[in-house]
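ARCHIVE CARD
SHELF: 3
SLOT: left
DATA:
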Amino acid sequence: MKLTRRAALGGLAGLAGATSGLKTPAWAAAATDVQLLLGGTLTSIPGQFAELANAALSRSLDLDTPLELTPDIGQDGVRAANLFDANSAPDGNTALAFPGSTLLASLTGDTRVHYDFGRWTPVLVASTTTVVIARTELHKTLRSRLTGFFHDHPVRLAVSHIGGPELNALMGLSLLGLRPIPVVGYVDSSAALSALHAGDVDAVQISPYTLDRPLDDVLANLPEGTGAIYYTGDLTDTHSSNIPIFLEAYQQARRRAPEGPFYHAWQAVSASADTAMAIALPMLTPPEVVGKWSRACSATVSDSGVRHWADLHHFKLATGENAEPFLSRTVPDLGATLALRRWLAVNTPRWRQGQETRHI
């Protein structure tokens, strides 16, 4: 049969339409199915952000209805991350908002973990800072403070639980040559600071967003003989000039630069502890869908309500390509991972018996 010119053009138009349809993200045609899994309840940091940003994010994603929020009963995000990694197709219909504890659980080898966050694609990260405070002799240099006061006895460090965000301080103090003992049960910064003032612990780790008053006020009213040892993250408060970053503290205390697998493991743990929240898509999500989510997140962080929330909590928000480095720093190499797991295996039984950390 002879193919007419009109039929040929009609066939090409149909082919073009089919090709165009293939380029359309699947979730764009099923807007009501787009959801944000929350690694925590609605009162958690991911939950707070999701409720506050829902309208702006849904509008920027061109959704017909508000983004469906699916909270979790836990606070560490492990259960939600397992569901996300196992059941979410890479079509942009499902994103995960999770706290830094989700990363720490994986790094420490938590048996509940069945996900690989290193495969996720971040589209937004809210980062924070942590400050490690310890009893010191403030009139001396950092090196003499560390080797003098702590030379003959271990350092009692207030922690929420073994493997919590205070792992940053537990590893950091160990790298500085000290012998920390984690004292569990301090679930918030206020309780830890009260214990420090009472002399029940020697060191605490605090973050601005967990405090019930400004960080400057906390630093200005520490008990006598107590000071900030180091900080990680992006500290912008006015007292930050008086606090060294960890690298400076290490070089003052040890007279050399830090190196080795355990230090690299600490870097990943520290970056995880400084991740207040992140939003990610599954591995193999098409670039155009990732771009759509990234642009939506960029538009959302410009919302006045979201900006106010971030400023109130001292969060630094990064989106799209700017978010990728934050999550990549939480992924250690195999040698660092093994060093961390070995250190935990050696010391966890000791900590349960109230013994100080053993260096490996």
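SLOT: right
DATA:
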Amino acid sequence: MIAICFAVIAVFEWRQCKDKPSGGQKAFWWFFSLMLVWNLAANFIPWWPNPIRLIMYLLGWM
């Protein structure tokens, strides 16, 4: 469910950046694909770290 929410947000962002140069669009689609796969893996693979857990690991010492 979280992956779907991120995908919807990314589509709205794509609508804003679709008028920009093609280099920006390629970067957007690579980042979108990476984040979609990452979130899907975090939802279905128990040992895969989700983004919130990574943030907690990186910033948890603060």
